[in-house]
């Protein structure tokens, strides 16, 4: 065998080995990046869609109505920032607000909208995202219990997956907690921390979040403080429907010291906007199928003894 022929074969083998190694590296990189790309896309798409819905609600005065229900309670913990229009309504009504959201894309939109409204917001970035088999893992850094430097503080946090948030709650005190119109992007189901909860749809997700919010409100509220929950649902056109709604909230409050105020139940008729994040139908405590010919925003309050 000639020397030149051997060198050519060796060079060809090295080149092929290098190509295989590069193909393997690209496959591994795609595997590593794909879940993160999906998470970013779903978060961004949800933030854009929610902005459409929130703009419709804001123009109709719905956020001002929701904020009016916690009048007199100065320091507010808002669960679910959305695009910040609800936060703006709270701030304009004189509240100091700590607003938390799992979706940084929503917090980006909220920060922009608050600035446009002339409200300075402090931003707290805490999440670290990593790829795991079948999805992603999100962890959160510590959250210091310190005085607010601004009227509004926007915090990356997750009621369902954030031990540091719960540790912070132990040392924090609020006059009110609000949980308005909770929703989620599709990639939430790929969060490792949520798998054991077997959350299969947006209705399940909302109930899990609200259960967590009841428990968190029990920790952070001062005596006499209030938790306000607002949902989109069918109009409460009968005594049975009103009791069905109240019974559901009583069940959620059962693991806490909070007491659902039956007399606080109020509704506001609304039109579902075209596009945006659509309402997800869930059955109430009675199990009946909702009648969606007329829709309402339903607000209810639970009080801390």
- Radius of gyration, whole Å: 24 Å
Q: How are helices and strands ordered from N to C?
A: HHEHEHEEEEHEHEHEE
Report the span from N to C terminus: 93 Å
* Tally of strands: 10
Q: How much beta, percentage-wise?
A: 15-25%
Strand order, biggest sheet? 3-6-2-1-7-8-10-9
Averaged pLDDT:
88
CATH domain class: Alpha Beta
What would CATH call the homologous superfamily? Vaccinia Virus protein VP39
What's the number of structural domains? 1
For the sheet with most strands, the description reads: 8 strands, mixed
In short:
With 305 residues, this protein is α/β, with parallel strands linked by helices. The chain is built from 7 helices and 10 strands.
Could you describe the 3D structure shown?
- This protein has 7 helices and 10 strands.
- It has one domain (3-303): 3-Layer(aba) Sandwich (Rossmann fold).
- The chain is α/β, with parallel strands linked by helices and 305 residues long.
- β4 and β5 (135-140) form a beta hairpin.
- The protein has helices spanning 3-59, 62-68, 85-92, 104-116, 163-170, 202-220, 239-253; strands at 75-79, 96-101, 121-124, 127-132, 135-140, 152-156, 174-180, 221-234, 259-270, 295-303.
- It is elongated, with a radius of gyration of 24 Å.
- The mean pLDDT is 88.
- An 8-stranded mixed β-sheet has the order 3-6-2-1-7-8-10-9, sandwiched between helices.
């Amino acid at each position: 065998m000639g020397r030149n022929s051997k060198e050519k074969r060796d060079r060809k083998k090295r080149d092929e080995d290098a190509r295989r190694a590069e193909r393997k590296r690209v496959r591994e990189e795609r595997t590593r990046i794909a879940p993160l790309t999906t998470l970013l896309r779903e978060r961004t798409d949800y933030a854009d869609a929610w902005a459409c819905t929130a703009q419709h609600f804001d123009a109709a005065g719905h956020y001002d109505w929701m904020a009016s229900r916690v009048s007199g309670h100065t320091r507010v913990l808002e669960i679910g920032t959305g695009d910040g229009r609800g936060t703006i309504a709270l701030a304009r009504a004189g509240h100091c607000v700590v607003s938390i959201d799992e979706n940084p894309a929503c917090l980006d939109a909220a920060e922009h909208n608050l600035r446009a409204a002339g409200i300075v917001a402090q931003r707290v970035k805490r999440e670290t995202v990593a790829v795991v088999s079948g999805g992603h893992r999100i962890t959160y850094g510590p959250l210091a219990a310190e005085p607010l430097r601004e009227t509004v503080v926007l915090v990356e946090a997750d009621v369902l997956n954030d031990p540091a948030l719960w540790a912070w709650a132990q040392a924090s005190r609020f006059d009110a907690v609000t949980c308005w119109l909770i929703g989620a992007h599709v990639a939430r189901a790929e969060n490792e921390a949520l798998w054991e909860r077997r959350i299969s749809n947006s209705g399940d997700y909302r109930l899990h979040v609200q259960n967590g919010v009841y428990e968190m409100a029990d920790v952070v509220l001062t005596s006499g403080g209030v938790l306000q929950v607002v949902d989109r649902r069918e109009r409460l056109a009968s005594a049975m429907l009103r009791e069905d709604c109240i019974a559901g909230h009583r069940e959620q409050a059962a693991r806490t010291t909070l007491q659902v105020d039956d007399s606080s139940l109020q509704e506001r008729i609304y039109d579902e906007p075209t596009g945006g994040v659509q309402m997800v139908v869930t059955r109430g405590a009675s199990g009946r199928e909702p009648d969606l010919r007329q829709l309402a925003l339903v607000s209810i309050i639970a009080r801390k003894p």
